[in-house]
Specification:
Elements (H helix, E strand, L loop, with lengths): L6 E6 L3 H12 L3 E6 L2 H11 L3 E5 L1 E2 L2 E2 H11 L4 E6 L4 H9 L4 E4 L4 H17 L5 H7 L16 H13 L6 E4 L6 H10 L8 E5 L5 H9 L16 H4 L4 E5 L6 H13 L1 E2 L8 E2 L3 E6 L3 H7 L4 H7 L2 E4 L10 H15 L6 E2 L1 H9 L5 H15 L4 E2 L6 H7 L19 H15 L4 H8 L3 H10 L3
Parallel strand pairs: 1-2, 1-3, 3-6, 6-7, 8-13, 8-14, 9-10, 10-13, 15-16
Antiparallel strand pairs: 4-5, 11-12
Helix pairs in contact: 2-3, 2-14, 14-16, 18-19, 19-20
């Protein structure tokens, strides 16, 4: 077997013959290749496998090789990308290198030259990985993320969450998840259970705010036959049903004072008593609770018991809102597009670069849940196989764009003797400041394409 066996390279090309030719050439040297025919498929596969080396054609049906370089370097900077360009396209090749590409090859591709470049790129990528490879292999995210396949993210904020999950999951400790609605607290609770020694035992979840006090008591602790009107038989509650496993208590900040007392007793004694019952029942249940409330403040106001609060917060994990992990939006969008396309029997090949930029700039007050619903809407109603600005629901288009007609005109100072490059930089800086950093809107105001603006920003190191 070749010394390169099991080394995975992602090959991206929308021309099947070229895709197969490059893949075979690398496989002969022992590389294991993953193939993608468009930008979205490449995003999805890279998010899953974090290939050390990627070979991509410059022109893709739903984006460009330069877009892919930027995406890969944003998600996993140590991976190296080789761009295949049209013969003689020196300007594009230079642009690829500025975007962070390892190198480029011109068409028609000299396969021997390409194999040599891949070997060099592999050596560089793997050499730079060693320091952090253990943590990253554990918490790498995307469509599947090591021990946490339900979770998607590569932002600094999410890597910190994954690091905590890696530490706390194998323990018996109670966990308190804090975060806004829609951030994915229930998915994190499920991930903790799945990565624990209790994974073969039940995982149950209950939304504490969905029940009245009486019904919640019965749901959690169960009841004996005849204990209240309609109690026609003995029924086990969530604590008994989850015995040996994990119980997720969502919206824990909404429970009444009386329910707080009962829950505290369960945590202290590891026993429950059914409604209408006379006997204590021993249980072994790990508690994961979640809330979007500030429990510190609720304790100070007297709305939440301090002793219960400290019982629950043995480990606290703060789940970041989507606005604090914007770099994860392309990963999430790619995952949702793929999922909803399959679920609704739609053929969606990708999403335009400009549309992705718009989605990144939407406030997403409802966090990941709101983004998910938006992408589902776009996939269902799109008339094309590539999602564009026209597919974004109107309410989001309205809040994404800044109305330039309401912006009071401003002027920039141009001194005699300034170079055209200095004037251009001044115009871009002032326009970006005026539209609060919205690149899509700035490009429109300046009368240039979004990719041109992005290239200028890199050129001027803005």
């Amino acid at each position: 077997m070749s010394e390169n066996a099991n080394q995975q390279v992602l090959v991206v090309d929308d021309q099947r013959s070229s895709l197969e030719s490059i893949s075979r050439a690398l496989e002969k040297k022992g590389y294991a290749t993953h193939k993608a025919e468009n930008y979205l498929e490449a995003q999805t596969k890279f998010s899953r496998y974090k290939h050390p080396v990627v070979v991509t054609d410059l022109n893709l049906p739903d984006g460009t090789g330069l877009d892919l370089v930027s995406f890969i370097k944003g998600v996993h900077p140590r991976s190296e990308v080789i761009v295949v360009t049209a013969y003689g396209s020196v300007e594009t090749a230079v642009e690829a290198m500025k975007s962070g590409a390892f190198d480029y090859v011109a068409k028609p591709v000299n396969l021997a030259e390409l194999r040599a470049l891949v070997a060099q790129a592999w050596q560089k990528a793997t050499a730079s990985r060693n320091d952090n490879s253990e943590l990253e292999s554990e918490v790498s995210s995307g469509e599947n993320s090591g021990r946490f396949p339900l979770l998607i993210g590569q932002s600094k904020a999410m890597l910190q969450v994954f690091e905590k999950l890696t530490t706390v999951s194998p323990t018996r400790a109670s966990v308190l998840l804090l975060g806004e609605s829609g951030t994915g607290k229930e998915l994190i609770a499920q991930a903790i259970h799945d990565a624990s020694e209790r994974s073969h035992k039940p995982y149950l979840a209950i939304n504490c705010s969905a029940f009245s006090e009486g019904l919640l008591e019965s749901e959690l602790f169960g009841h004996e036959k005849g204990s209240f009107t309609g109690a026609l038989k003995q029924t086990k509650g969530k604590f008994e049903l989850a015995n040996g496993g994990t119980l997720f208590l969502d919206e824990i900040g909404e429970i009444s004072s009386a329910m707080q007392v009962r829950l505290l007793r369960v945590l202290e004694n590891r026993e429950i008593m059914r409604v209408g019952g006379a006997d204590n029942i021993s249980i072994d249940v790990r508690i994961i609770a979640a809330t979007n409330k500030d429990l510190d403040k609720e304790v100070r106001k007297g709305n939440f018991r301090e002793d219960l609060y400290y019982r629950l917060k043995v480990v606290v994990i703060e789940v970041p809102p989507l606005r604090e992990r914007k770099s994860d939006i392309p990963l999430l969008v790619s995952y949702f597009v793929k999922s909803f396309a399959a679920e609704n029997n739609r053929i969606i090949r990708g999403i335009s670069t400009e549309t992705m930029e718009i989605l990144k700039n939407i406030p997403w007050k409802g966090n990941v849940r709101e983004l998910r619903n938006c992408i589902e809407n776009m996939v269902i109603f799109s008339r094309n196989d590539v999602l564009t600005n026209d597919d974004i629901p109107s309410e989001y288009r309205e809040q994404t764009y800044i109305d330039t007609t309401s912006i009071e005109p401003e002027h920039i100072d141009i001194s005699v003797g300034m170079t055209m490059e200095e004037i251009e930089k001044e115009a871009i800086v002032n326009t970006l400041n005026k539209v609060q950093g919205n690149r899509t809107q700035a490009a429109r105001m300046l009368g240039i394409g979004l990719r041109t603006l992005q290239r200028k920003i890199k050129q001027f190191e803005l």
